[in-house]
Sequence to fold (157 residues):
Amino acid sequence: MKMKDNKTFYLGSDHAGYKLKGEIKDFLDGLGYKYVDLGNLRLESCDDYPDYAYKVAKNVAKTNGRGILICDSGVGVCIVANKINGIRAVVGYNVRIAKMSRVHNNTNILCLGQDYISLDKAKKIIKTWIETDFNAEKRHQRRLEKISKIEHKNIGI
Fold:
């Protein structure tokens, strides 16, 4: 667990991910990881996922950190997060996707859907995603560089 001592995870969820986020915080505590909860800090049925996804994504981009976002499906928060330059968010609906998103795409935000995965499955997905390193082969680096050019409107890839 290389990241335990030097990385802080940023967490966020709307009302539809609030319960799972609380359980994830307990799980991260048990593994010894640090995190910052950027909201929602109390259950509010009329909150909006873009608010929390934006906060997490901006902090991850600014600190070169990693984040975990939760809503009902994981899709909404993923869409918002991927609007921020430097963010490579994935909806981690199973362990293999979580692992490959790190190995090939160096994802820095994991998005989960509270309504679609159990706590046990979420724990396995998170642990795999946290503990998997990016494979820095030239082909993967080249592809991430192209993504960066697109983000910065330098479309001449």
The chain has one domain: 8-151.
